[in-house]
Amino acid sequence: MPRDNMASLIQRVARQARITFRSPAGPAFGENLHRLQQLLDKVRAEDLHLAPRGPSAAAASSGGGPPWAGVVPPVSYMHICETENFSMGVFLLRSGACIPLHDHPGMNGMLKVLYGTLRIACMDTLPSGAASAPPPPAAGSGPCLRALFRSRQHYTPASPPCLLSPHTDNLHQIDAVDGPAAFLDILAPPYDPQHGRDCHYYRLLEGPPAGAEPPALPREVWLMETPQASDFWCGGEPYPGPRVCL
User: Which residues fall in a coiled-coil region (predicted)?
Assistant: First the structure.
């Protein structure tokens, strides 16, 4: 049997990611990205030897909050591989967990849900000076930026990958809905503060009044940069799936 036919699906995804993000400005980038998207769309939890967490992970505590609050990380990460051009791993969110609104400076990204349901809100930063109105009073003295709130959608294992580019859907918030969830994540290139690719967190400064229908999307919004939330942190877990060699 040819060696490529013996390779695991996640190995083939990693190889295609290496080809795709080796030359993100090259003429074949669009075609290579499409091939990577097609491969990523085939990945299922069982391909990585993952199974949804048990019923206790989705149970509510007697106090009304998630049972893991303040005890274990709301989010865990399984590292699969990393090169100078891309990183790949799995994020596991406990029931009710949220990865707060954050950015990916100058980066491409792909996200494929493996189990559970995610609600993903995506935004674009707008050019400096594009604001048609001043920030709301709630902004205070923190740094603010104008953004286009593009979409808020639910993703399941049956959904195609969620894509982001340096200029489109580059800011997003990820919430686990109705139970635990997991997704395969590719970032290209990886975060690297020394090269200007640090993660920044934001808070939406405007929203609908309580009980009102959310405003239609897309729409322009104000965001304020904030420190990482005290109730959000990411732990680490060993990756149980097929080995990836690059």
Answer: none
Mean pLDDT of 83-92: 97
Backbone torsion region of residue 179, taken as left when φ is above 0, otherwise alpha when ψ lies between -120 and 50, otherwise beta: left
CB count in 10 Å sphere of residue 90:
23
Contact indicator for 108, 188 with CB cutoff of 8 Å: yes
Q: How far apart are CA 98 and CA 228, in angstroms?
A: 12
Rounded Cα gap, residues 4 and 233, in angstroms: 38
Handedness of CA 33, 35, 243, 103 (dihedral sign): positive
Nearest-CA neighbor of 203 among 155, 132, 133, 135? 135
Q: What are the start-end ranges of the H helices in the chain?
A: 3-6, 9-22, 29-42
DSSP 21-87: HH-TTSTTHHHHHHHHHHHHHH--GGGGT--PPPGGGGPPPTTSS-TTTTTS-SEEEEEEEE-SS-E
Is this model's pTM higher than 0.85 or not? yes
Question: β-strands 75-82, 234-236: how paired?
Answer: parallel
Give the per-residue pLDDT at 1: 37
Please determine, looking at this structure, whether the domain spanning 73-128+142-236 carries the CATH number 2.60.120.10. yes
Tell me the three state secondary structure of residue 8.
coil
Q: What is the pLDDT of residue 124?
A: 94
Of the pLDDT bands very low, low, confident and very high (cuts 50, 70, 90), residue 104 is: very high
Query: Is residue 140 very low, low, confident or very high in pLDDT (cuts 50, 70, 90)?
Result: low
Q: How far is CA 7 from CA 4, 10, 185, 243, in A?
A: 5, 8, 20, 10
- Domain ranges in the chain are 73-128+142-236
